[in-house]
Specification:
single chain; mainly alpha; two-stranded antiparallel ribbon
């Protein structure tokens, strides 16, 4: 493998790790056992593929996060609109067509609601420990 800028190569190898970059130069190896490369293979080409992959991964994660926030918002809106503002504290609101409920952590969720109310009085002062009250932050999407 040819390296045009040794300082840049050292920088990336020090910060990214040899093994992370090794996956990106596999297609350029003539023989993996001896780690010989095809003639003309440039470190910068391998690095460009890594940087492209990194940017693509960040774009995908950004898109996934936007979809997640939108789905959570729509779910919270529909649940609240159909079952009222305290629907999350009533597991029967999340029944499946077969009669089961989505998720199995309702007792733990109920305990977290009580802890949330006790621990975050500045943001949840209006929430009492009544079982018919929502759990503050968990309800928000």
């Amino acid at each position: 493998m040819q390296v045009r800028d040794e300082a840049r190569a050292e920088h990336y190898l020090a910060h990214l790790n040899y093994y992370r970059l090794a996956a990106y130069w596999l297609p350029y190896e003539a023989d993996h056992g001896s780690h010989t490369f095809h003639p003309g293979t440039q470190f910068e080409t391998v690095l460009d593929h890594y940087l492209f992959d990194r940017e693509l991964r960040l774009l995908m994660l950004d898109a996934i996060e936007r979809i997640e926030v939108s789905l959570r918002g729509h779910f919270a809106y529909q649940l609240g609109h159909r079952h009222g503002p305290h629907a999350l504290s009533r597991p029967r609101c999340l029944q499946t067509p077969t009669g089961g409920t989505i998720g199995t952590g309702w007792p733990a969720f109920s305990r977290m609601c009580r802890v949330t109310v006790r621990c975050s009085s500045s943001t949840s002062a209006h929430i009492t420990m009544s079982p018919c009250r929502p759990c503050g932050r968990w309800w928000r999407s």
